[in-house]
Design goal:
Blueprint lengths: L1 E5 L12 E5 L1 H5 L4 H19 L7 H15 L1
Antiparallel strand pairs: 1-2
């Protein structure tokens, strides 16, 4: 098993939260070239990101009220 370490680069200072996952050695050695193996690892890392990372509004109710006011004032 190869341990893959990754983290989100979001442009903000601090708050680093390293992540990791494992890939079977057989998945890597089944690739014909280093480039193909690196692409497979990149795809697996993207899948890990998609499965683990999510976003949310910090103050949804305030945002909803602001949007409501803007929409209502334009109609």
């Amino acid at each position: 098993m190869m341990n893959i370490n990754w983290e989100v680069e979001d442009g903000y200072v601090g708050g680093s939260r390293p992540q990791s996952f494992e890939i079977d050695d057989e998945d890597i050695t089944s690739c014909l070239t280093v480039e193909e193996a690196m692409e497979m690892i990149a795809d697996a890392t993207q899948e890990e990101f998609d499965n683990k990372a999510s976003w949310c509004y910090r103050d949804f109710d305030r945002l909803k009220e602001a949007v409501k006011g803007l929409v209502e004032s334009s109609t």
